């Protein structure tokens, strides 16, 4: 079955004023859709690869033929990254993570505010387009870093549980070149309950 764009779990205008409805419409309906369309084109004629879930496809990226590997990285990464992005945002977002995730963040980064500073710095200093991530590594530990373009942490054997898109298409209508303002506003829509759920399922 061909990869598909997942439905948004909320209305296009649910995240206003932090992310406007028009940006969500274009981002989800145009950009994410283009990644999925081009991924399916790249996998045409490779039924074994097309049958894999996107997470498995990216984790096993070295098994992808050289002729289509970069297309799968670009478009498969775009699909996986955005599919997570929609999930980790919500309206009426909780102010902070709870329980095990909060403890892990404190143990790794020193506290929630310290983590936010690290995450935001990674987002602000990513040259060009890319993502800032919170991931669970192979040992079940948290780590924060950024990746270029649509590269996915899955290709490093990591499980992303929180990510912010810092491509200009994610924020330019509202924030123009003010990426740090976008990142600061974005914390207001982070669905910490979903991030905690992803953290629990990612731990070995």
Summarize the structure.
The chain has 204 residues and is mainly alpha-helical. The chain folds into two domains: 21-87, Helix Hairpins, CATH 1.10.287; 99-202, minor pseudopilin epsh fold. Helices cover 50% and strands 10% of the residues.
How does this model look, in words?
This protein is mainly alpha-helical and about 200 residues long. The chain folds into 2 domains: about 20-85, Fe,Mn superoxide dismutase (SOD) domain (Helix Hairpins, Orthogonal Bundle); about 100-200, Iron/manganese superoxide dismutase, C-terminal domain (minor pseudopilin epsh fold). Helix content is about 50%, strand content about 10%. It is built from 9 helices and 3 strands. The chain has helices spanning about 20-45, 45-50, 55-60, 65-85, 100-110, 110-125, 170-175, 180-185, 190-200; strands at about 130-135, 140-150, 160-165. The protein has a 3-stranded antiparallel β-sheet with strand order 2-1-3, with helices on both faces. α1 (about 20-45) packs antiparallel against α4 and α5 packs across α9 (about 190-200). The longest helix is centred in the N-terminal third of the chain and has 23 residues, at about 20-45. It is globular, with a radius of gyration of 16 Å. The two termini are about 30 Å apart.
């Amino acid at each position: 079955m061909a990869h598909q764009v997942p439905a948004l779990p909320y209305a296009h205008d649910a995240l206003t004023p932090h992310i406007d409805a028009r940006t969500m419409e274009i981002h989800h309906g145009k950009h994410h859709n283009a990644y999925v369309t081009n991924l399916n084109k790249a996998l045409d004629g490779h039924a074994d690869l097309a049958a894999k879930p996107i997470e498995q496809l990216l984790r096993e990226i070295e098994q992808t033929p050289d002729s289509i590997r970069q297309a799968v990285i670009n478009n498969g990464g775009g699909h996986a990254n955005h599919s997570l992005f929609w999930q980790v945002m919500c309206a009426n977002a909780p102010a902070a993570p709870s329980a095990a995730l909060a403890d892990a963040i404190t143990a790794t980064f020193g506290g929630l505010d310290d983590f936010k500073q690290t995450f935001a710095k990674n987002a602000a200093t990513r040259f060009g387009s890319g993502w800032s991530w919170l991931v669970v590594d192979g040992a079940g530990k948290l780590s924060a870093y950024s990746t270029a373009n649509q590269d996915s942490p899955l290709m490093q054997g990591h499980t992303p549980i929180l990510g912010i898109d810092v491509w200009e298409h994610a924020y330019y209508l509202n924030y123009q070149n003010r990426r740090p303002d976008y990142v600061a506003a974005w914390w207001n829509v982070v669905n910490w309950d979903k991030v905690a759920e992803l953290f629990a399922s990612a731990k070995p």
